[in-house]
Design goal:
Order of helices and strands of chain B: HHHHHHHHHHHHHHHHHHH
Radius of gyration of chain A: 21 Å
CATH architecture of chain A: 3-Layer(aba) Sandwich
Low-confidence stretches of chain A: none
Structural class of chain A: alpha/beta
Number of domains of chain B: 2
Distance between the termini of chain A: 71 Å
Oligomer: heterodimer
Structural class of chain B: mainly alpha
Distance between the termini of chain B: 16 Å
CATH topology of chain A: Rossmann fold
Number of helices of chain A: 16
Strand order of the largest sheet of chain A: 2-1-3-4-5
Largest interface: A-B, 21 and 22 residues
Number of strands of chain B: 0
Strand content of chain A: 5-15%
Shape of chain A: globular
Order of helices and strands of chain A: HHEHHEHEHHHHHHHEHHEEEHH
Number of helices of chain B: 19
CATH superfamily of chain A: SGNH hydrolase
CATH class of chain A: Alpha Beta
Number of strands of chain A: 7
Strand content of chain B: under 5%
Number of domains of chain A: 1
């Protein structure tokens, strides 16, 4: 009897190990490349950037390290409404508490259920280890009946053998772990028909309440919140929505850096995707501006040269090599 | 609660562990409660229907036993039959009969509009009603004694492993087993789990993947080539077997773990050498039910070939109707009956064949060919679609066809699984079991083999949010 119990326990343990290995092997690796370095980092971060693809493509943590010397992670994700950003921040703070949290407000007009694309939900949740924070976030952002696949991604990815064996694996984001969450899209498109407006959307937008919750959450953890509108094309309605954040920022006493019409980037050379996103040149300009502003406002430390941050220099070298290899001459 | 769901993977171990922790005398009460819980997971209110069926047939059994006069006993039996058939008829056939009446009126130019009804078919109703009916008839015939305890009888009707898609058990086998005390047994559990593993392989790896191709071709058969329809029909034949036999294996294995032996429901049907032999191997519990409660009472083969042919046609027409409320099922059943009638009329060879194995192989292939035709009718959207498809197979064999969405990798996976299934069926046909074969291996190799089998089912199985959940085909019956 005792032998049978032992053998059964060993068999079950082997099964669990194999399942864990399969889980690793069958998963899409986008999520790991995008967020893996965040969970692996031991030293923590001075700044976290959160929000949509505008921040994902528009801010480079490695350039902030090179030029300003503070550490940061880009948690930006495609089509992420602020209602989700609030949960991304809460789960992120279960691992690292930054000095400053910079929130991109591009999707302030979008509600959680209408905007967040299915594959980008997985992009965030897949790399997030199973924890109370993750369960809370999944329950808050995913409809009932669709939660298991985010808590147990293997239930979705066990069928990927076909994709893996046929070698037809498509990437969701152009991230590498050494980019600290940032993405580089090497493309360039110009747009001339662009008009600015200073008008604000009246009334409450879906993201306003999320911004209040984000501010409260930050203050609860001793984190300085900053709202930011990054440069790039936005429709008149989108501009008005982002402008309306000023009202909420004033109400909360949170700084709002509206870079929409500061003339930081060149519409002819610094954008791609019909000027919807910044290319590496545009990202360098926006990063340099915001980095200098953050450094000045919050007196962020210069950690360059510290032995504990040697890996940041190694990552920077990889980042610059990658950028030069793919971008020079375009 | 589907067998191939997360819920069942949690439900079954809990039921089993608690079952064996409980004192033997109350184990059956736990099974009864859990069986109703299992059933109520679909539509809680339909448990009332099952309870009504249980109470009425239980009462009929008790009344039959209590009454001294045979004619009164007969009235009690018929009361039970009429009530249950009425229940089945209302839920399953109301729409069908109204449709038939409407068609007839249209044909005869009678101005009448029958009402449109939409009645949700309770899961497994055909199965538990047939099981309960067999009890009433057996009590009347004196084959079994009426069960005194209503709740023990209720467990016979509702025993969760075989509740919604069989095997349709008989009371003389099942009541005694489900209400007996059972101790945990390692060997029995191992065997039960292996049978369940085979069932999951058949269901989630083969049937549900094959279903993708079959659905794509049958859903757009008008544009499909004849070759595609033929291939899809072959694939459906395997899918149907794996779907239903898979369910039966999971049911038999789960019951075995709990100490209950259910009857074999499938015995390598595609190795049958005649249509009659096919039906002795396919859905055995239903075939024997029809044999014992319709075919024999009608007189079986007594009274000459004509009467036997009539009886066969009645049985298979009823079988067709049992499978579904649509003309295609009636046609399917009648065709199966007709094929057996023709087989009975064929002259028997006087001499032994010179090459018996080749002769057997040819008979098997011919039988499978005939069964494939019946399968096409069974799977088609309607009788007219079935006829259209049968016509299209030879006339549009080389037509351009349609994109099935089934990749070459999926096709390869399905093909490999078909080969594995064929090997398993061959082993069973040789009167051996997988357990017997694996028992010859050293324990470490055996454990590794089981582990690989589980992992293969998990990886290659069609389950989870990436796939649409496929219910078992026979649930709709």
């Amino acid at each position: 009897m005792k032998k049978k119990i032992t053998m059964t326990a060993l068999w079950l343990a082997a099964l669990v190990c194999c399942l864990l290995l399969l889980d690793r092997g069958m998963r899409r690796d986008d999520s790991e490349r995008k967020y893996g370095a965040f969970f692996a980092e031991k030293q923590g971060f001075d700044v976290l950037f959160l929000g949509t693809s505008r921040v994902l493509d528009g801010i480079s943590p490695m350039e902030l390290w090179r030029d300003c010397g503070f550490t940061s992670y880009n948690m930006g994700n495609n089509s992420e409404p602020l209602g989700v950003t609030r949960w991304v921040l809460e789960t992120a703070m279960a691992y690292h508490t930054p000095r400053v949290a910079v929130i991109d407000v591009f999707y302030v007009g979008h509600a959680v259920d209408e905007a967040w694309t299915y594959s980008f939900r997985h992009l965030f949740y897949d790399a997030l280890p199973l924890s109370r924070a993750k369960i809370k976030a999944v329950c808050a952002t995913q409809p009932e009946g669709e939660r298991i696949e985010f808590l147990m991604p293997f239930s979705l990815y066990h069928g990927r053998w076909e994709e893996i064996l046929s070698g037809q694996v498509e990437r969701l984001v152009d991230c590498e772990p050494y980019m600290m969450g940032g993405e580089m899209r090497f493309d360039r498109t110009a747009r001339d028909d662009y008009a600015f407006t200073d008008d604000m959307t009246e009334g409450e937008l879906p993201g306003h309440q999320a911004l209040r919750e984000i501010a409260a959450l930050c203050r609860e953890h001793g984190v300085e919140p900053v709202f930011v509108a990054l440069p790039g094309h936005a429709s008149e309605q989108e501009q008005m929505n982002m402008n309306s954040v000023q009202r909420v920022a004033d109400e909360l006493g949170v700084p709002f850096v509206n870079m929409l019409r500061m003339g930081i980037v060149d519409n002819q050379t610094d954008c791609y995707d019909e000027m919807g996103h910044l290319n590496p040149d545009g990202a360098s300009k926006a990063t340099a501006f915001l980095g200098a502003w953050l450094k000045q406002q919050y007196g962020l430390p210069d950690r360059r040269g510290e032995s504990a941050y040697a890996n940041w220099d190694a990552n920077l070298a990889k980042y610059e090599a990658y950028r030069v290899e793919n971008w020079t001459g375009m | 609660m589907l067998f191939n769901s997360f819920e069942f993977l949690i439900f079954f171990p809990i039921v089993t562990v608690v079952y064996f922790l409980l004192p033997g005398k109350i184990q059956w009460i736990w099974l009864l409660v859990m069986s109703y819980f299992f059933y109520m997971n679909w539509h809680a209110e339909y448990a009332l229907l099952m309870a009504a069926c249980t109470i009425v047939t239980y009462a009929c059994g008790r009344i039959i036993t209590a009454l001294p006069e045979k004619k009164h006993k007969k009235i009690a039996m018929w009361a039970g039959i009429v009530f249950n058939i009425g229940l089945l008829g209302y839920f399953k056939y109301t729409g069908f009969f109204l449709d038939v009446i409407q068609r007839a009126c249209n044909l005869l130019s009678i101005p009448m509009a029958t009402p449109k009804v939409s009645i949700l078919l309770p899961v497994g109703i055909s199965f538990y009603i047939f099981q309960a009916l067999s009890y009433v008839i057996d009590v009347y015939k004196g084959r079994v004694k009426a069960e005194r305890n209503l709740f023990k009888y209720a467990l016979f009707v509702s025993f969760f492993p075989q509740l919604v898609a069989g095997p349709i058990e008989r009371s003389n086998r099942l009541i005694r087993q489900v209400t007996a005390e059972h101790r945990f047994d390692w060997e029995r559990t191992r065997q039960g789990l292996l049978i369940m593993l085979l069932g999951f392989f058949e269901k989630v790896v083969i049937a549900d993947r094959a279903c993708m191709y079959v659905d794509a071709i049958y859903g757009s058969w008008i544009d499909a080539s004849g070759a595609q329809i033929a291939l899809a029909t072959f694939v459906f034949a395997v899918q149907d077997l794996c779907d239903f036999a898979g369910y039966s294996h999971i049911a038999i294995g789960a019951a075995k773990v709990l100490g209950v032996e259910l009857m074999t429901n499938f015995r390598q049907p595609y190795f049958a050498h005649s249509v009659q032999n096919f039906w002795a191997r396919w859905h055995i519990s239903l075939s024997t039910w029809f044999r014992d409660y319709i075919y024999f009472p009608l007189g079986a083969g007594r009274g000459g070939r004509l009467k036997q042919a009539r009886n066969l046609m009645i049985v298979y027409t009823v079988s067709g109707l049992w499978h579904g409320a649509a003309l295609k099922y009636v046609a399917w059943g009648m065709l199966n009956g007709a094929l057996q009638v023709v087989e009975g009329l064929l002259p028997q060879p006087k001499n032994k064949p010179r090459f018996p194995k080749l002769d057997l192989l040819l008979h098997i292939l011919l039988t499978d060919f005939l069964i494939l035709i019946t399968m096409l009718i069974f799977r088609a959207g309607s009788l007219s679609s079935a006829l259209g498809m049968l016509l299209r197979i030879p006339t549009a064999w080389n037509a351009p066809g349609i994109a099935s969405g089934f990749s070459s990798m999926q096709a390869l996976c399905t093909g490999v699984c078909f080969v594995i299934l064929f090997a398993i069926e061959l082993i069973h046909e040789k009167r051996k079991t997988l357990t017997e074969l694996t028992d010859r291996l050293p324990s470490a190799a055996r454990g590794t083999l089981y582990l690989l089998a589980v992992l293969a089912i998990i990886v290659f199985g069609v389950w989870g949010p990436g796939y649409a959940a496929q219910a078992f085909i026979y649930f709709q019956f």
